[in-house]
């Protein structure tokens, strides 16, 4: 049996990123535009998809796309904050003025 197809899409109309498993919506991470940044405020993986590592896939995809658009990240969502802490290559996305306020190390 093959692995399910997983993809992350930017839903700009709803200011969020969505993760799909075999074309079924499995969760989302919401953000609010904040000047040259995206303030990530909430991440949710639907119950039937929990425990499959989809939050990491979703957040990585959202942050990579945010970087590609040359925007910064304000990780107010605890999942996004923890992801940035555990993956220091994403620290540079958090503006220097916000790192100390959010308890993140300097990049």
TrEMBL record:
Domain N-acetyltransferase: from-to ranges: 9-95
InterPro entries the UniProt entry points to: Acyl_CoA_acyltransferase, Gcn5-rel_NAT, GNAT_YJDJ
UniProt cross-references to SUPFAM superfamilies, sorted A to Z: Acyl-CoA N-acyltransferases (Nat)
Protein name: N-acetyltransferase domain-containing protein
Natural source organism: Rhodococcus tukisamuensis
């Amino acid at each position: 049996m093959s692995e399910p197809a997983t993809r992350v899409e930017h839903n700009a109309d709803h200011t969020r990123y969505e993760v799909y498993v075999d074309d079924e919506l499995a969760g989302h991470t919401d953000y609010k535009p904040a000047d040259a940044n995206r303030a990530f405020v909430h991440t949710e993986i639907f119950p039937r998809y929990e425990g499959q590592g989809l939050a990491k896939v979703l957040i990585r995809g959202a942050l990579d796309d945010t970087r590609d658009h040359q925007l910064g990240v304000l990780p107010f969502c605890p999942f996004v904050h923890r992801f940035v802490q555990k993956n220091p290559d994403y620290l540079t996305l958090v503006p220097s003025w916000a790192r100390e306020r959010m308890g993140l190390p300097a990049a």
